[in-house]
Amino acid sequence: MSDMILHHYPNSPFSEKVRIAFGVKQAAWKSVVIPNMMPKPDLMPLTGGYRKTPVMQVGADIYCDTQLIMLEIEKRVPAPPLLPKGKEGVARALAMWIDRNIFWAAVGVVMGALGDKLPEAFLKDRSAFSGRSFDPASLKSAAPMALQQTYAQLVLAEEMLADGRPYLLGDAPCLADCALYNPVWFIKERMGGGKTVPPFDRLPLITAWSERMKAAGSGSPTEMTAADAIAIAREAAPEATSVDAGDPSGLKAGQTIGVTPDDTGKVPVSGVLVGLTNDRVSIRRHDERVGDVVVHFPRAGFILTPA
Predict the structure, then answer these.
(1) Where are the domains of the chain?
(2) Domain 88-214: which CATH class?
(3) How many whole angstroms separate alpha carbon 226 and alpha carbon 223?
(4) pLDDT digit of tens for each residue in the chain (307 aa)?
(5) Is the pTM of this model over 0.85?
(6) Integer CA distances (angstroms), 227 to 33, 45, 137, 258, 295, in order
């Protein structure tokens, strides 16, 4: 089996969602550190323009968005499971809620506190990425409301733990726990780390849960250069995929389509449709540096547009 290669950077909160999953599974993986803002000259040839972090590579297959990355990790390292039997849909739905709601509230908390300390180039990059202003004054004025929203939503997770369970869905960490660890880790790491940092001063169960999650570590990473990752893609062949002929989209194998995130980083990636299921879309594309690759995206949260 080919190595799982994670293209990420240390302070990336969504990368931490994946790194903690590697820790839960005690998995081995390769680490390629990428820039925290554009340009990303060694990543774009692999993704075709998709600019979010992280990206996972397995040979000549490129997996975008942590929704799909986590499913691939689960497939390749099935034990211990991130999708508990009988609760698979619950775990995925909770993760989607966390990614789309709690995370962005947490971003408001952190950026409100740190926005005036960040480089101008970073603020401009994130403004272009998110489609909203990242000027320090606006971030600071919005921070109190972001903190209220973060607290209000984390209370729901606090209540899930109130019956004494150690993790959100039971006795073992699952996909939902990895997703929640992302914004909790982000606030704690960037705001000082202690349990007295709001809103954790009022969330003792989440605070204790986060320490249990942190103890999982990040598996067994080995550093890899971007050049080596590109060489691996160039020398490999993508795995076989198929298109559901009865898919309600009406899209057919061999069509050229564009795939675009519906929230942030709205850069379309174009390619030939080679895979389509209820949870993913796969397109084949060619780049002079990497050769033929297949780039995979989740269905939820992505817009598919025929060329």
Answers:
(1) 88-214
(2) mainly alpha
(3) 10
(4) 689 999 999 999 999 999 999 999 999 999 999 999 999 999 999 999 999 999 999 999 999 999 999 999 999 999 999 999 999 999 999 999 999 999 999 999 999 999 889 899 998 999 999 888 888 999 999 999 999 999 999 999 999 999 999 999 999 999 999 999 999 999 999 987 666 789 999 999 999 999 999 999 999 999 999 999 999 999 999 999 999 999 999 999 999 999 999 999 999 999 999 999 999 999 999 999 999 999 999 999 999 999 8
(5) yes
(6) 11, 11, 40, 27, 19
